[in-house]
Design goal:
The chain is mainly β. It is built from 12 helices and 64 strands. Strands 51, 52, 53, 54, 55, 56, 57, 58, 59, 60, 61, 62, 63 and 64 form a 14-stranded mixed sheet that branches. An 8-stranded parallel sheet has the order 20-21-22-23-24-25-26-28, with helices on one face. Helix 9 runs parallel beside helix 10 (about 575-590).
Length: about 1000
Amino acid sequence: MKRTFIISLFVICCWLPFCGKGLELPLNKVWWSYYPGVEFPGATGNLSWPKDETLRLDGNFSKGGDYVMAFLAGQLSLPPAEKLLINLRTNGNAVTFRIQDGAGKMHQYQLPVKQTPQWQTIELPLNFSPCSWGGPDNKTFSPGIKYVGCLVRKPTSGADGSSFLEIKKIDILMKNKPVAGTAYHCLPPVLDPETLLVTPGGTITIPLIGPDGEVAYKLSDYSGKTVREGTLNCRAAKVQLKAPETEGYFDLHIAEGDISFITAFPLKFKADPYWGMDESLSWWGTGGDFRRGYMRFLIGSGISWGRDRFRWAELHPERNRMDFNCGDYAKILEWSRQEGLHVLDVFHDTPAWNKRLLTEEDNFEVSATSQKGYSYGSNVYPRDYLATSKSWRDICRQFPAIEAMEVWNEPDIGFGNDFPAEFFIALTKNFSTTFRLAGLKTKVIGGVLAIPQETTPYYRNLIAGGLLDDCDAFSFHTYRNPQDLEQQMYLLRKQEKEAGRTPGFPLWITESGRPWPSGPARPAVNQGMFSAQEITGKAIESRALGIQKYFPFFVIWHVESIFNFSMFDQRHAPLRSMGAYVTAVRLFSHKKYVGDIKLAGSDLCRVFSDGKTAIVWVYKSYARKIAGDWGSLDPDAYKRVHITLPAGMKPEKILGADGRELQLQNGELPMDDGLCYLVLRADSLGRYLVSNTRAMTLYQMATKYQPKERQAQNVVIQPDYDPSKHKYNRDGIFLKENEELELPVIFNNLSSETVTVQPVIKKIPAGLIVDVTQLPEVKSAPESVQKFHFKVKGTSKLPERQVVLLEIADKNGNATPMTVCLGGQKVTPPLSVVPMAKMEKAAFSKLEGKDDWNSFSGQWTGQVEPDISAAFRFGYDKRTLCLEVQINDKAHSCEFVPFMAWLGDSVQVALAAVDSRQIELCASHGIQGDRVYRHVGQPEGIVNNVKFEWNRDDRKRVTYYKLFIPASELGVDEFRPGMKIRCALLLNSGGPDGRHGFLTWGDGIRGSKKISEFNELILR
């Protein structure tokens, strides 16, 4: 009772100052957004502010349309009101407004105005409008305001079809009675990121819409602990908050919303070029000038490199036309130059006029949100290398702010459409030669692999094909755990050495994220801390391993499926991951890795020093580790951590992830953040430091490496053959015995000089037959192409599980060689499928041994021995195809939801019967019981019409799966004898830590989704 009385008294006291008065709505950029009226196509318009606090909306209807609109963005909850008083001017004879009332009904009002260029004030009574929609059908205007929109409509007369509306002031005249318990203040939809990096003790100004008066707030620290609460005085649509005196990350709950900010003292050092950020401001975009605020935030934090993204097809839409004014590239790059943010750019699209597609439907731009991939066989890489060279020469001259260029984003996955390595290598060499001939200092960054692995030959193929000879650095992405990186780096350096190179080539990590579950506007405290721990941990660990640059993914709001990768929220306020990253930048800039300290209970304990101060990074993973995947948060992991310092070690400070000062807890390090930092004098490390670590070996490989000039010659050899005529994937083209491969190649002379070339195949690997090894010598005119043709044939000696490299070169040395990646093809005979009545007597086909096994966890460990064996068989009747699988496994484990069940023990089957209709199902006995999930085919999700039986015999260590798949799933009326069905199986082996590997029968599930890689069933 007492609490209710106090709340009521607070509401009344807050109401009294504005009772019967007007509330003026702010008209600045923070609050208002533009909407083009897309329901009626054709209108164009613009929202601008010719003077402070004066809003102007222009609309042009010469090509159709009905309206454009400026609307007050954000989740409004304004007080009950009687009317609006609006000071405006327009060239029309009426104005239109939309007001959503407190119950959610939208009311549209059209009011007459005087046709005069002078300012005039109109009155808009907030009554029920016959033109209304949504909300309850009660023919009233319910108290409160949730939305305000100002429209410019198509004029009834006028030659140019244009209209405008300028608004100088909007006053809301409120009613006399408040609605008890209602909050009348709201935060803006966007904030300026620059204002959220604050000097400790400084003042933060936060825009608020609502009446003048007191507003309750609560301030929490990085751990979620409340550090301050009370009220702030709202005046002129804003409040001011004094920031804490210490450095750190803080959450502010105010006006029923949440924002956050970081306190940090101004930098006292020059930015360390190691620290970057994947920001992509010109592509994903956040709109408006707030993007410049991101740049200033990064620079103020000590982050000096930003990774952006180009749409090449947008810049060069037609062969003979470029458009440098498209998008916001010019604006963003000029801002970057002015603010001192170094730019790494990347692309993975080719203009339609410069690529070979199978059908017109393939001509679309791939993105993370694409609903389909390129058709397999389409060459998404550019065809015309001379045009490519001229295009990128002009682009990089136009935008000198681009200091480094990643030639293609993730060619080893869908963006490269599964083409073998030589296609990507040749494109990279084209850039290398182009930049050299044009005198451009833009760095060529090759690779940007999504998944560099030891267990696939793609990276080795890149090295053998000469990619590193034509790059200034090689880049890759990682979403793994920090403790995985050392083994990954060891294997990458091992491959460099095995390829005959001095290991230590400059490596950049240009994406490295740790997502949190999508859905909420901000992550839960523990999920935010987990993302921060892992993103920051990989930055520090990568520094210790000799990585040259590091770019976390992703600074602005970005959701992919069930994952949110954002380091800022939708209001552009920094999240915990950003707070922790900023702290790491400040602590470790210009410090070198000097060794480890052994602390029992920690996963990693790296030491960095500048000779005066030493920073010890103590890390303990809070991931529920999943082999081959990034894992998920173990929410109770922190309870099991107990780490004490060695006897005699006395750090000067212990800091948390966001730089806040912490204390020992009962003699143990405070590890709630998953990490902490010990600050010591460098000369106090003494006996605690261990410098002879494997990480130190890797660090010294990188720091001692002597880079060389790029080797790009004037002539670039380009593959011009079509892999889709054969079995192929990213690792190579795979030939059957006596299968012939046509090898047309193009010698591109990119220079302004005449060059003499003579194509030659230097060494023929075992398993291949080449008709002609040397072609006639030809003079190639300046900026011209010469086409040549080789032919090879596979033999029985061509290895099936490995690729060999066929080198095509210029005998005169005017071109760097091109290697063709080739392997043998395992031919699997069609499998007979008996009628269901005979299925019990049918023989099982077996899967076991290395030939059927693919290691997933082995990509880091090198362990490729299978840990399961299996047998399977099929049967059918008119309506159903039956699949029976028996898996020998020491235990069954699938602790995942159906969508992710492939990470545990499960069975995947892909089938295609008619018109390339394809389905892919995953059957699992997981945490939701027995489920079948459709990954390919429509609709995606849990399937109810596929009967699934699961059983387990622990004594025999055998798991039994039986699926009954209706003919309708494959798009056929019934199954008939003689029918052929394409099929692939993938049998997953997992444990509590996730997938270890899988057995396969046919391809087309894990590596690609190509029906051509399936095996064949024949119904008998």
